[in-house]
Amino acid sequence: MDIIISNNANKPIYEQITSQIKAMIISGELQAGEAIPSMRALARSIHVSVITVQKAYEDLQRDGFIETTVGRGSFVSAQSKEFYQEEQQRRAEEHLQMAAEIGRESHIPLEKLTELLALFYEEEADHGV
Fold first, then answer.
1. Closest alpha carbon to 2 in 66, 58, 46
2. Are 34 and 75 in contact (CB under 8 A)?
3. Sign of the C-alpha dihedral, residues 55, 58, 64, 65?
4. Has residue 18 got a pLDDT over 70?
5. Do the Cβ atoms of 34 and 46 come closer than 8 Å?
6. Of 34, 72, 94, 98, whose CB count within 10 A is highest?
7. Quick one: pLDDT at residue 9?
8. What's the CA gap between 7 and 123, in Å, rounded?
9. Which tens digits make up the pLDDT trace of 46-87?
10. Which of 127, 99, 98, 124 is nearest to 114 (CA)?
């Protein structure tokens, strides 16, 4: 597993580990049911404390990306991709609700808001995001 740690990043090391493993799961690089390295093995390979890796694994487990079984190790959760998609949809809904409230209060027609959303969505897609 290729995890790259930056000492110059604004993120703590455990968050760097967490976000990179999440990205590997979401991209399909790590598949559901696949074993991930033990905390000790990962800590050794990226030259960080086992406690740092433990914090990352705890966050990944809490967020539903991995499952850990005593004596067996940690594995990519079968629901991880769906869980992430659901979480992101929930975040988008919060922002859309705020946009709808602003639109209603400011008398911006729904068609205009829909047009703006489509524009922003396509603009980001054009930039490879």
1. 46
2. yes
3. positive
4. yes
5. no
6. 34
7. 82
8. 33
9. 999 999 999 999 999 998 899 998 889 999 998 766 777 777
10. 99
Picking from 70, 75, 68, 69, the residue whose alpha carbon sits closest to that of residue 33 is 75
Residues 101, 106, 110, 114, CA torsion sign: negative
- Provide the pLDDT confidence category of residue 88 given band limits of 50, 70 and 90: confident
Structure tokens at 9: 């990043």
CA dihedral 115→118→123→124, nearest 10 degrees, is: 140
Residues with Cβ within 8 Å of 87's Cβ and at least 6 positions away in sequence, in order, are 63
Distance from the first to the final alpha carbon of the chain: 24
Residue 57 to residue 85: CA distance in whole angstroms? 20
How far is Cα 89 from Cα 67, in angstroms, rounded to an integer? Answer: 23
